[in-house]
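Record Molybdopterin synthase sulfur carrier subunit, 77 aa.
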Amino acid sequence: MRVLYFAELKEILNQSSEEIDIKKEMTVQEFEAHLFNQHPEIDDKKFQIAVNEEFVRKDDIIQPQDTVALIPPVSGG
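=>
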């Protein structure tokens, strides 16, 4: 699974993307738990998740071959 990081998350993790070895499908909520276990430094950050360029809900399913993007809120005015 390819995971893309943007804005603040990209800076905190010092990477714009990574490959995560996931063997089975999981819900978005399960993915978040896995991600926070791997990267506890972003556990308190706010972001939306998009899978294959579509925003998803916590109970949607992610497949091992999907591309997941973590997108923090956009600030500005």
